[in-house]
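DM from R.C. (forwarded with permission)

"hey, sorry to bug you on a friday — could you get me a structure for this? deadline for the figure draft is monday and I only need the backbone to look sensible"
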Amino acid sequence: MSHLFISSHTFKAFLCAALTVIAVASPLQGQTKKLYLPLLDASDTSDLGLAFVNPTLNEAQVTLVARTYNGAIITGSGITNPVTLTLPASSQKALRTVEIFGSKINGLTGWVELSASMPAVRGFFVVLDRDLTFIGGTELITTAASRLIFPKVSSVAVSPTQLTLVNTSSEPIHTLITLYRDSGQSVVSKIIDLPAFSGFTRSVTDLVPSVVGFEGYAIVDSAVGSDSEGPETLIGIETYRKTSDIALIRALPEAAQLRTGYLAHLASQGGYSTTLTLINIEAQDQVVRITAEALQVSGRPRIPSSITVERTLPPYARLQESVDRIFNLSGSSLIDGYIRFETPSDTSGVFAFLDYGTTDGVILSAVDPALFAIS
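My reply, with the result:
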């Protein structure tokens, strides 16, 4: 039997609230659009929900197809798959996976491909446990890629990073995963074959058992043994834990490599901490100008309200630094704001994300710059 760990109203209200920001950047016209949910992991100890928004003045349909990580469409008694949902004009809808596919989907693993009749339709998903000791969510993936960057990979954390990778194509592909330490040193590379519509969720230590004491990032490339770009069929997500809570962040495509971008929301002091991560995948140094903007202390404007610093990232290096240290923030009162970053020289740009939460690890979240990107 499926457990209802929190009230349906509370769960759905949370999901729909998350869509308020996502809907702002939605295109309003075009043809059928693909969306992807890389993991399907609702079980007796966790729950997974999806929320959709249709900001247009026309009715929209979303068709969902759930597959196992072997690539097969999930079938069986008590399961309806595929499923088509109708979204009225200017509406939101939030559902648990068991409400979409049926109660027997509970406990099964895999991924979901979604086809929206209107490209403006956007989605968000949340994973949480029975006692709300962890909760994590992010926007549905909108584009498959030939190269993905997993920006925070660790084998020494409280719980090793969980990597999810899916081949969304009807053709098998070969992928190459390479791990880089913060210094930029390439540690190990491994070829992983992905049959049609297949994927996996595995810890970094299971995926690459030889890695010990690793902190850094990973690049997965579908162009193996070729000078040309590989097929754009990869999607991914990573999950990591700090004490009790978890954070989810989408694997970053090359389009997320930015010369200018914004990251919201930083929180410092008052029992909160924020860490900035920047990654340079180029073979040259990159100078990054980092500015904390619209700073407030306990809800009142800070003087000065912005602070700017610079950091230099060597080739293939990753910077992971607390905003307290970057901007020399101190005190007992909560300081909040957002971050702008830019590479002032003529370089390719960097990948970036923030994770923030309480200093005791009870709350943890992550945000990438996708919704706030400039170039």
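R.C.: lifesaver. Residues 1-7, 9-17, 20-28, 371-375 have pLDDT under 50 and may be disordered.
me: no worries. The helical segments are 8-22, 97-101, 204-207, 323-327.
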